[in-house]
Design the sequence.
């Protein structure tokens, strides 16, 4: 493949990420403007019912209404496929907050994406396969001072089994991060963070002539909505990069790699082990070095956001998407760089 062709593929990939970023950014702006519009409505009501506050309320209405409507613009209808229910897949990953590494970050990027979560050594993501389609609801109501919001996620597990009974006894009231997948789609979404986790609020066990099942309900009182999870599902230990090796050797089935220290600081500037069928695959690198850390610079093999070098110091991480058999492109917003 010529350098010109590869450069065109890289630019095309980056442009697609930028388009996705702009689309999600527009959604964020619309959400913020809806909140502003709500305050404008309250101010308008106050202007009518409290004439003495009319001047202040009118200023608020004018300021919020003009800015919000200009930002919102026109909103089109959507096809039925966007409205239909039953959109959540049956498999749900439950991650207890205490499984997260101390330096794990769940702050979403500007385009509402969260990359691979950092877990404590030996911790993995475990899934629940529901018997019926899980449900997610979010509701909010304006109070005297602020909006009271509640997010609820419910799954129904079939049967009354030992693992379910143990989960009830040991995890009722515990705090979780929830990852769920969209039906007939590779898209995954993530609910909760260490500050506002999804709490196992209630359970309902049935063992009667009607059915044998356990319903788990997770709840969080927050206006924060779910984000897209673009990271890897961590179900086994990360693969280990050879200390000091300048070529990153990637194998099928391993998407997370610990990058250790070398006898001296070293650079990783090449990759191997990929084929064209790996296109779109996500690779996550986790730094584990206190000193003599590896570094990855912008090159023909690694396309880095803004051309900024990443260093594999302990607690650092970065995710790449496979462009082709010889090129990895940084996933925007995935980088964690410790000093």
Sequence:
């Amino acid at each position: 493949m010529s350098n010109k062709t590869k450069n065109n593929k890289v630019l095309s990939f980056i442009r697609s990420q930028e388009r996705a970023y702009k689309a999600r950014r527009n959604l964020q702006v619309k959400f913020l403007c809806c909140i502003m519009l709500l305050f404008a409505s309250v101010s308008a009501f106050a202007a009518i019912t409290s004439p003495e506050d009319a001047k202040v309320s009118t200023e608020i209405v004018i300021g919020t209404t003009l800015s919000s409507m200009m930002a919102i613009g026109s909103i089109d209808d959507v096809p039925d496929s966007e409205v239909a229910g039953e959109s959540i897949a049956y498999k749900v990953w439950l991650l207890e907050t205490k499984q997260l590494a101390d330096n794990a970050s769940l702050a979403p990027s500007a385009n509402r994406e969260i990359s691979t979560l950092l877990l404590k050594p030996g911790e993995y993501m475990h899934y629940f396969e529901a018997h019926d389609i899980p449900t997610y609801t979010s509701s909010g109501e304006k109070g005297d001072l602020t909006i009271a919001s509640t997010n609820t996620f419910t799954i129904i597990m079939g049967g009354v089994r030992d693992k379910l009974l143990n989960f009830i006894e040991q995890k009722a009231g515990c705090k979780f991060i929830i990852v769920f997948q969209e039906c007939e789609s590779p898209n995954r979404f993530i609910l909760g963070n260490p500050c506002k986790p999804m709490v196992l609020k209630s359970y309902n066990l049935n063992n009667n002539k009607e059915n044998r099942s356990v319903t788990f309900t997770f709840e969080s009182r927050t206006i924060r909505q779910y984000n897209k999870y673009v990271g890897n599902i961590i179900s086994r230990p990360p693969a280990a990069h050879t200390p000091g090796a300048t070529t990153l050797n990637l194998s099928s089935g391993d998407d997370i790699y610990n990058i250790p220290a070398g006898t001296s600081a070293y650079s990783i500037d090449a990759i191997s082990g990929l084929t064209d069928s790996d296109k779109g695959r996500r690779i996550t690198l986790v730094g584990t070095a206190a000193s003599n850390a590896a570094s990855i610079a912008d090159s023909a093999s690694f396309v880095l956001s803004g051309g900024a070098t990443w260093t594999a110091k302990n607690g650092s991480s970065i995710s790449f998407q496979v462009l082709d058999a010889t090129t990895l492109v940084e996933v925007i917003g995935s980088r964690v760089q410790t000093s």
The mean pLDDT is 82. The domain at 239-330 is CATH 2.60.120 (Jelly Rolls). The radius of gyration is 24 Å.
